[in-house]
Design a protein that fits this description.
470 residues, alpha/beta, 10 strands
C-alpha cells in the first residue's frame, strides 16, 4: 500500500483487493456481492444424482437450499451450493465446567437457521473435543439437505503426522459424532503447522491424501480442501498438487481480515487470496476479526469508524471488509452467545460492500495499529493446555485489552509515573485472569511454540507480562 504522500488511485486500490470498480458499484446497488461466476440468484445443480454406493451414500448430494430473509449468499463454483456468506464457526461455543452448554448452542443454531445461515464449521479438536457432537445434536432436528456441514482432519498436533490407522479412525469418528453419512465440506486441518515435514508425513507418506480423494469419489465428501496456517513453501506445495492434477481443491480456508491483508506476521492474506482466485479456488475465511481483536480496537480508531458509519460496530466493519471480496464463499464467525449471532446476521442481511474510500480507511487503520504492542493471538487454543497451568490465550486477551484501553505502563522505568501505572496495570490484570493461570507460572519450556499457527513467541511475551505483574 502506498503512503499518504502518494495517494492510491481508486482503480489501483480496488485492483489490489481483487475487485473491480464495476463489481463494487453493482454490489452496492443490490446490497450484496455477486457470487463468483454467477448471479447467486439461481444456484445451478451440480448434476443428476448418481446411484448410491455400497454404503448407501448418494455421491453428488445435490441440494436445493432456499434463501431466507435478507441473508447474502454465494454460489459454490464446484457444486452449485447456495452458501450463506456468514458461516457459523463452532469453535467458541458456550461452555460450562462440564462441557458444551447444549441448550445455548441449540438456541443459537435455531436462530441461525431461521435467519439464513446454512454453513456450520466444526472440528474434532474444538471445544475440548466436544464441538462435533454438539453441532450434530443442534442440527439433528433439521433436514440434512437444509444445511452444509464442514469438519476437518485434525491430525496436525501429531508431531510425526500420525498413523494411517489413527487418521482413518478419526475420520470415521467424525461421522458418528456429527450423526451424518456425508460431509458437505471436509478440510485437512492446520496445514503448515510444523512445516513441510509434517505436511508430507500426515498427507503423503501414509497415503491420507489419496484416501480422502477416494472418499470424495464415493460421495462421503462433497467438497475437499484445507485450512492454511503455514509459510509460502507449504502453500506453494499445496497449490502445486492442484496445478499438477494430483488433487482438485474445491476451497481453501485462509485467515483474512483488514489487518492481515497487508500486515500479517507471516504470509499476507492478499497473497493467499490472489493465488487461490487466479486458480478458481474459492476461499473460506477464518479469523475475520482476528480472534476478536478487530471487534475491540483502540478508541481512536473505533471513533473514526463510528463517524463514517454511526450504526456499524467495529466487528461489522471487519465482516464487511471480508465479504466485499468476490472470491469468498463464506466467512466464519466463532459465536459464543446468541447476541453475537443476531448482530452478525444483521450485518450480512444484506451485506453492504465497502466503498473504495472505506477500504482506504481500513488500510490506514491497519497500518497505524501495527505500531501498537498487541499480541497476535486468535485464541485458537492450539497451544493449550500448558503443563504449568498458564492460560495463554487468557493472558494475551487481558494484555490486548489493556493496550486498547491505554493501561500498559510506559516502557521506560525512568518515567516518574511508571511504578504507579505498573501497579494499576497489575491490579487490573490480576482481576481478569485467575492467579493460577497467570503468566508468572510460565517456565519457558517452549512446548507451546510448535503448535502456534500465528508463530507468536509465547514465552517472550509471558516474561514481559510477568515482569509487569511484579
Amino acid at each position: 500500500m502506498e503512503s499518504k504522500k502518494q495517494p492510491v488511485s481508486r482503480r489501483t486500490f480496488l485492483k489490489s483487493l481483487g475487485l473491480g470498480t464495476a463489481t463494487v458499484v453493482a454490489a452496492a446497488s443490490v446490497g450484496s456481492v455477486p457470487a463468483l461466476g454467477s448471479e447467486a440468484q439461481d444456484a445451478p445443480q451440480a448434476g443428476k444424482r448418481r446411484k448410491k454406493d455400497a454404503k448407501g451414500v448418494t455421491a453428488s448430494h445435490v441440494k436445493k437450499i432456499e434463501r431466507k430473509g435478507d441473508m447474502t449468499y454465494r454460489t459454490n463454483a464446484s457444486t452449485g451450493d447456495l452458501v450463506s456468506l456468514l458461516g457459523f464457526g463452532m469453535m467458541r461455543l458456550p461452555m460450562t465446567q462440564s462441557g458444551v452448554d447444549q441448550k445455548k448452542v441449540d438456541a443459537m443454531v435455531d436462530y441461525a437457521m431461521a435467519h439464513g445461515i446454512n454453513y456450520f464449521d466444526t472440528s474434532p479438536h474444538y471445544c475440548r473435543h466436544q464441538s462435533e457432537a454438539a453441532t450434530g445434536r443442534a442440527l439433528a432436528k433439521y433436514p440434512r439437505e437444509s444445511y452444509f456441514l464442514a469438519t476437518k482432519m485434525s491430525t496436525f498436533l501429531d508431531r510425526n503426522g500420525g498413523s494411517r490407522e489413527a487418521a482413518e479412525a478419526g475420520y470415521e469418528k467424525s461421522f458418528t459424532e456429527c450423526g451424518v453419512d456425508y460431509f458437505d465440506y471436509y478440510l485437512i486441518h492446520g496445514v503448515g503447522i510444523g512445516g513441510m515435514p509434517i505436511v508430507r508425513s500426515r498427507l503423503m507418506d501414509i497415503g491420507m491424501l489419496d484416501f480422502l480423494i477416494g472418499e470424495k469419489k464415493k460421495g462421503r465428501i462433497r467438497n475437499l480442501g484445507f485450512s492454511f496456517h503455514g509459510d509460502m513453501e507449504v502453500f506453494n506445495y499445496m497449490m502445486k498438487l492442484h496445478d499438477d492434477g494430483k488433487v482438485r481443491w474445491d476451497m481453501v480456508q485462509i485467515q483474512m481480515n483488514y489487518q492481515d491483508w497487508h500486515h500479517a506476521g507471516g504470509v499476507k492474506a492478499e497473497t493467499l487470496y490472489e493465488e487461490c482466485r487466479k486458480r478458481g479456488i474459492q476461499n473460506i475465511v477464518m479469523e475475520p476479526l482476528l480472534g476478536g481483536r478487530l471487534a475491540s480496537i483502540p478508541d481512536v480508531h473505533a471513533k473514526r469508524l463510528a463517524k463514517a458509519r454511526p450504526g456499524d460496530s467495529p466487528a461489522a466493519w471487519g465482516f464487511r471488509f471480508v465479504g466485499s471480496h468476490e472470491n469468498i464463499l463464506t466467512t466464519l464467525s466463532g459465536m459464543t452467545i446468541l447476541d453475537h449471532v443476531k448482530e452478525n446476521v444483521a450485518t450480512f442481511s444484506p451485506l453492504v460492500p465497502c466503498t473504495d474510500k472505506e477500504f482506504e480507511m481500513l488500510e490506514d487503520i491497519a497500518a497505524a495499529m501495527v505500531a501498537y504492542p498487541l499480541i497476535g493471538c486468535t485464541a485458537c487454543s492450539y497451544c493449550m493446555p500448558c503443563k504449568f497451568g498458564v492460560d495463554i490465550p487468557g493472558n494475551f486477551a487481558a494484555w490486548n485489552k489493556a493496550v486498547n484501553e491505554g493501561k500498559v505502563p510506559p516502557a521506560g522505568k525512568g518515567d516518574p509515573d511508571y511504578e504507579s501505572r505498573r501497579k494499576a496495570f497489575a491490579a487490573a490484570f490480576k482481576a481478569s485472569v485467575p492467579a493460577s493461570d497467570l503468566a508468572t507460572a510460565c517456565r519457558n519450556c517452549r512446548a507451546c511454540l510448535r503448535n502456534c499457527p500465528q508463530r507468536i513467541q509465547i514465552p517472550t511475551h509471558m516474561q514481559r507480562i510477568a515482569s509487569l505483574l511484579g
